[in-house]
Every structure is written in structure tokens, then in C-alpha cells.
Amino acid sequence: MKAIIFAGGVGTRLWPLSRRKSPKQFEKVIGDKSTLQLAVERLQPYFKWEDIFVATHERYVSIVSKQLPKLLPMNIIGEPESRDVGPAVGLATSILYKKYANEPVVIIWSDHLVGKPELFQQLLLTCNRATQKTKNKIIFISQKPRFASQNLGWIKYGKVAFKENNFNFYTFESFHYRPDINRAKEFLQDGSYTWNLGYFVTTLSFLWSMYQKHQPDIFRGLKEIYNSVGSSQFKAVVSKVYPKFPKVSFDSGILENIDSDNALVISEDLKWSDIGAWEALKEALQTSPDKNVSRGKVLVTDCRDSLVYNYSDQLVVTIDLDGFIVINTDDVVLICHKHSVPKIKKLVEKLAESKNDHLV
């Protein structure tokens, strides 16, 4: 079984920690290791280094190599340009398909937390066996919902198709992308909906066939890349073909077109968290909603439900803050209410068009 970890995003919602030069997946958001390093740790010892691949932007290849010195250089897939997740998964598929066409592969992301790594490992091993038995299927790995999230996609699943190693494999019903709060509450109460993590297990041959069937324009370029794999022309072909791909999300381009008979769902409590934004990081680390979460040299007085992260040597003092986010770096201080975090992305876009572009 092969694993592809996607680590190419910029992560503007975690600004000012996450920057163009070093996005969130390479920063020490939790403890002394980056979330990319933690993602690799969750795969071991069941995945050997030669079975692990990292897909990222070309500008971050050196960072990946530095953080994962045991990763084979040939297993780092550099995208010459950001073209969204649809082309990114397609590029990785075209490269690995050349050698591992019928081998199972798991797709995961580099900026998540999994609080139950042992359960996650057992789940992957079980999916590996199930994929070898069930051809032409994709298995969605999902998290049992903890609350009515509006920021995540949801999957509706049906009856138990079969059981393997005490894991239930459910039939797939439908996707629901970022519902409003009322629908999210309905999903939570219904009991047959689960959070979509963007994690799945399938075979490379099935992925390849899905691009051929549902994204013929992209597939023509992927076929050209596939034909160049292993040749001296490979990098030149990727540099020529990849930037021409349309920006298509993997969900809308591939997943939403898959026949329900070709999909299965596993829903488990993995203690998974997407820490793509500051309020999500707080939710992942807090012991209760009223508790504060802090890091570095901070003094928090009469505050509740706040996150205070200090990445500088100076002391940060907060008084009487309720539901605030305070981030201090060497060159930027961010202070906002946790409900205002979605505005950070638009702020960063404006900074990129100003004299403060160097801070993006």
C-alpha cells in the first residue's frame, strides 16, 4: 500500500504564522514537530519510507526534504504551479500509476491532527485488505461528528455493506459541502451523516479511470505526463502541461461524479481535527469551550475561551478577553474575535496587493 500526503497549500487562515515562504504544514503548530512530520509518524511503522510520497509545490520541495530527511527525493512530487486539488491528485496518480497501477493507495493531508493514531493505523490496514477484495471502489475515511460544523463537508451513509476487522463499511449515499448551521444541526441529530476528511483509500487504476471518464481534458495532459515518467523529459513535460490544467477541485471534478455503487464509507471517532484556522486549532486543543489555549511567553488574566499564541521572546499579556484570538510573531501581531477568523483570508489577499506583500 502506498500513501500520498498532500502538503501544497498556503494556509492563509493561520496567518501570520502561515506564510507563502513557509505554510502551516511546515510550522510547529503543535509541540516541536510540524503537522507534516506528525502525518508521516502516523503512518509508521506500517509504511516504509519508500511507500510514502509527499505532493507539494515546487517552492516547498527543499522544506519537505529538510523536515523528512529519510524520505526518498524521488518520492517528493513538486507541482510547478497551484492548480487546485483536482490536478494535484491527478499528477500524483499519473506518476505512481506507471509502477503501482493495481496497488492500494491512501490519500491524506498534512495539516490535520489525529488524536487516536493507533486506531487510524488499524483502519488503514483494514482498508488495505478491503480494497484488495473490492475492486473498482473508493473507501472514504470519515470522522464521527462532534458538533454541527459548517466549515466541513458531510457524507451521508447507508446500511452496513460488510464488516472487516470489527470495522463497519457502509454504503455511500451523498456529499454535502459546508451546510448552513440549521442543516448541520439536522445532520448531527440524524445519525447517518459523518464528517468528510478528504481521506480515502482506493487503487491507482481506479483513480486513473475516474480521470479518464470524468475529466477528459485533464486526462489528456495526465497521459502525456504518464508517458514521460522515468525519462529525461519528465520535468520539462510537467512544467509544460501542468500549468495549463483548469483549476478544478477534486471533490467537484471526481468525487461528486463517482457512482454510489463504487464507494464505501467508514465512520470512526479518530479524534480528528482540521487545524486550518485558529478557532479550529483551539477546538482541537481545548479541554472545554470556556478554557483558554496558550503557547509561549504569555500571561492570561481574567480571560475565557481565547487562544493566545506567542512566537516571539517578548511577553504577551491579555486581560478580560472573551473568545479572542491573539497571535504574536516577530513582525506581526494579530488580534481578533474568534468569529472574525474567516476575514483573515481576505485581509491577507489585500496585503498581497500592498506594500506589505512581504508579510504574506
Automatic annotation (TrEMBL):
**Superkingdom as given in the UniProt entry:** Bacteria
Report domain MannoseP isomerase/GMP-like beta-helix positions.
297-351
* Name assigned to this protein: Uncharacterized protein
Species assigned in the record: Candidatus Gottesmanbacteria bacterium RIFCSPLOWO2_01_FULL_39_12b
Every copy of the Nucleotidyl transferase domain together lies at 2-287
**Which Gene Ontology MF annotations are present?**
mannose-1-phosphate guanylyltransferase (GTP) activity
Pfam families, per database record: ManC_GMP_beta-helix, NTP_transferase
Q: Which GO terms describe its biological process?
A: GDP-mannose biosynthetic process
